Amino acid sequence: MTEVLPNFIKNRALLTPDREAIVYKKERLTFKELYEKAYYRAGILTAFGIKDTDYVGFLVKSDLETVLHLFAMQIIGAKAVLLNNRLTAKEMAFQLTDANATFLITEEDFQENALLLKKELEISVFYKEGIEDSSYIEPIEKEQLALDEACTIMYTSGTTGLPKGVIQSYGNHWWSAMGNTLNAGLYEKETWLCAVPLFHISGFSILMRSIIYGMKIVLHDGFNEHKILHDLWEERVTIMSVVTTMLERIEQAANERFPTYFRYMLLGGGPATVELITRCINKGIRVYYSYGMTETSSQIVTLSPEDSIRKIGSAGKALFPAQLRIVNDLGEVLGQNEVGEIKVCGPNVSRGYLNKENHLKDGWFFTGDIGYIDSEGFLYVLDRRSDLIISGGENVYPAEVEAVLTEMEGIREAAVIGVPEEQWGQVPVAFVVADGRVCSEKSIMENCEKSLAKYKIPQRVFFVSEVPRNASGKIVRRDLRKWVEEQKNL
Amino acid sequence: MTEVLPNFIKNRALLTPDREAIVYKKERLTFKELYEKAYYRAGILTAFGIKDTDYVGFLVKSDLETVLHLFAMQIIGAKAVLLNNRLTAKEMAFQLTDANATFLITEEDFQENALLLKKELEISVFYKEGIEDSSYIEPIEKEQLALDEACTIMYTSGTTGLPKGVIQSYGNHWWSAMGNTLNAGLYEKETWLCAVPLFHISGFSILMRSIIYGMKIVLHDGFNEHKILHDLWEERVTIMSVVTTMLERIEQAANERFPTYFRYMLLGGGPATVELITRCINKGIRVYYSYGMTETSSQIVTLSPEDSIRKIGSAGKALFPAQLRIVNDLGEVLGQNEVGEIKVCGPNVSRGYLNKENHLKDGWFFTGDIGYIDSEGFLYVLDRRSDLIISGGENVYPAEVEAVLTEMEGIREAAVIGVPEEQWGQVPVAFVVADGRVCSEKSIMENCEKSLAKYKIPQRVFFVSEVPRNASGKIVRRDLRKWVEEQKNL
């Protein structure tokens, strides 16, 4: 039997009404105010026609109004389909169609794409800026939440190149929040600075923790290390989520030692170097390195600060409610230090993709990532699934980019890999086999802009006579990576 | 679908093997050592014949060996039936028979009762002291726990006078621990002093929190305020569970202000006076007053320190995962400040009593307690169910004592109430109607000793010509309480 809990946002307002909930620029709301404002928006959205059974696209930036609309969805029980706002209209259309979304909540800055989507999909578009003039119908509030109900949908690609909608239930978010607390504790006046996008699980999970823990969020609409350092002291921030490039820039900009109330940086999307961790420690910045993905509703394996030097390179141990195994191609569990595929299970793991068959095997999710567990139980991730490229915290799936490239005129074959880059950690580069027709690096890049978000577009295109493949026809990307490395050393 | 988690004790040893788990007198164990020792005992108990499906009585004191045996049960998945060690053999026999227990784990100090039980019930008795000489069979370890599996059975009486076995699942204990953390936080180096009995939910729940949180326990084998104050500093205790009489004695014995790392007293079993709370505050002792029962797997409603003076007398608000309503006799939910029966629901609430029909109504547990919720959402408990008497933290059910009294020769009718008493908060006193045969206060008390635990035996017996009853024949206990009060004032 799935558990039923009181509606999180309403319950939080009941329990700690006067506690500060969120700070965004000059605005500050308590949990009571947060709830009341979200409730009002739930009424506006109800008048707009949104019901509990609806899937509603969100094409928005990270600001207070977005937070209020996201919580409004939870009050009525509608499901938010969170679009990465850097995607092209074509990519968004695919996701909204797949999710059978009938509404889109957006803002004026995205009007161009919104108009395209409205035209193509016959979707009802609601602008956040419009709430002042909107009519209102008392919303039908969900008093209770069954933990297996869907809360959010976030798209992620895999080996196929076609994005799939990860269903994150209220329970997934709840258990993720519990796993985090059991690992890192929960302090009085906990304050989490959110400068990662709300449409990512890294950002959205902070919203959920806020209402579950009764914790203050300091919300930023983008990444600016100077503003972050300012608020760190001004708002007495205790925790912050970062990717490596953010951590690097914050550490460099920090002129003084971090205050003692700052507890830790939760680092995702690829490990940091010993050198960076050491610099952080010297400035009083504790770092929890973590491994997770959209399907695990944020971190599932986390390395504690006390192990961050001794176990550098490791992602840590599974959070308490979760489990972790390494398996071979036959699905057999491997022993200590044996390399294989990482599989995970736990109540924070998504039970499935939208409109897809159950992908779990006996409750286990096969990540596609390769790694091993050492004799002390620490996980080391050697290779991200599907040769995932992480560029500035954004996931780029080679298969998705390759699919776009091979559809272009003049290209017979394509292979995409990530190469190290100072600012973003990694950037994608492409190897293409021309079919004899005219085609240039520039024309390929321009063509990509129609179908791919900017961060997915190859930064370089190399023309090759063939793409290296193994016996079963799979691209051998490590040969390409080796080649790029050699070029550098020349 | 019920959630499946890794076996708590094993998982904790994997996650934080070297963290200190428990301190008992001169002994100290890390989580790895705790697990290994419990695992060894699981092997001994396996050799003794105990399997996962067995219900095993525990007639024990609070010491390290008891803790190890209780965790051994969880390793093999057997269910512990926790007997209050102050009960008479007759009371214990009832509970063990009702639970269909085939094994009893006990210690030499309880040999007299154990022998009686062995003879009467044909139960296999295992002495904790015997593990040195016992044979060992590798235990079949439960790697995972489904949260709806039974973990412990604790008996509690109700209006009927016959004790019922409350089934507490792993999930009940888990969610109770989560509710506590979301209310009170979870700190690094959290240390909980346990001087309440392990056979009560107040004590047992500390064991569960320890392995779920990875938190150190300082275990005492009884209540001694001087030893408590010694360990408070020596072991840097952050939290402690108390009943009012314990709090009173600790506060009086404390010669200096409590250290700042001490976080709070979790107070159960009846509220404290403003005067006591004020004295506590002056000594730096924060108090969380809470309301709960065996059926809710410890606290379900808790008052935070920031409200402890302003809302004195209130039990606080429901813990996050739980819900709370006041209903009238028709089961209709009442509004603010309206007095009625308290009903609760949540994943920490027991799903049922052993061998009894489901007692929940649409998932709600009707506590039998009377109270109201004020305009801010705070609960006030006016009357404990079945006129429950709480004497030094132990529950005494008038109906149970009355049933014993009316079975005695010479007594026609009996009524039992609690009266205020300095040391224990309350003690039971009886009113009896003689049937004409010889019977004295002394003989009644002596007779009670055969059937009732000491704390349940009436401290005074008053002979009356009749017991006050209302139209439906129910005893009007408030008339008796009033009479006792008037005697005092004479």
Give the helix/strand layout.
The structure is a homodimer of 490-residue chains.
Chain A: E1 4-6, H1 8-15, E2 20-24, E3 27-30, H2 31-48, E4 55-59, H3 64-76, E5 79-82, H4 89-98, E6 103-106, H5 111-121, E7 124-127, E8 144-146, E9 150-156, E10 164-169, H6 170-184, E11 191-194, H7 201-213, E12 216-219, H8 225-234, E13 239-243, H9 244-253, E14 264-268, H10 274-282, E15 287-293, E16 298-303, E17 314-318, E18 323-327, E19 340-345, E20 365-373, E21 379-383, E22 389-391, E23 394-396, H11 398-406, E24 411-421, E25 425-434, H12 441-451, E26 461-463, H13 477-489
Parallel strand pairs in A: 2-12, 4-5, 4-6, 5-9, 6-7, 11-12, 11-13, 13-14, 14-15, 25-26
Antiparallel strand pairs in A: 1-8, 2-3, 9-10, 15-16, 16-17, 17-21, 18-19, 19-20, 20-21, 22-23, 24-25
Helix pairs in contact in A: 1-2, 1-7, 2-3, 4-5, 6-7, 8-9
Model description:
2 copies of one chain form a homodimer. With 490 residues, chain A is an alpha/beta fold. The first copy, chain A, has 2 domains: 376 residues, ANL, N-terminal domain (Rossmann fold); 102 residues, ANL, C-terminal domain (GMP Synthetase, Chain A, domain 3). Helices cover 31% and strands 28% of the residues of chain A. Chain A contains 13 helices and 26 strands. In chain A, the strands form 5 sheets. Chain A has a 13-stranded mixed β-sheet with strand order 3-2-12-11-13-14-15-16-17-21-20-19-18, sandwiched between helices. In chain A, strands 7-6-4-5-9-10 form a 6-stranded mixed β-sheet, sandwiched between helices. Chain A has a 3-stranded mixed β-sheet with strand order 24-25-26, with helices on both faces. In chain A, helix 1 runs antiparallel to helix 2, helix 2 packs across helix 3 and helix 8 crosses helix 9. The longest helix of chain A has 18 residues. At the A-B interface, strand 1, helix 1 and helix 6 of A face strand 1, helix 1 and helix 6 of B.
